[in-house]
Amino acid sequence: MELTIFAKKRTTKEGKVFFNFLTRLTNKRTGEVETMAVRFRDPCPVPNAATCPMNIVVDKADCNVAVRNVTRKTTDKDTGEVTEKEGINKTLWVNAWEHGAAYVDHSTDDYFD
User: Is the pTM of this model over 0.90?
Assistant: First the structure.
């Protein structure tokens, strides 16, 4: 299956820069498009974030989806009230991949000629 991988630049509290990789998969049972993190297991190479977004080809046997329940705490800036929200984190773990077709951005097709 061919996936489009996006890279999001992040910074640690210590100032170290790293990248998170994201993709969108369609759930065949519900038809819902789900955004999930993509992680690459050793010794699988990590894509170059500078070339993202990019398409990669992954065999179903070379990946799996991990689902984790999480609790997120947020603090209201005005009142200082802390609230907790339950959620689900999904991660696609990839063991092997190959380069796919060139990524073409169609997001502005409706706006420009």
Answer: no
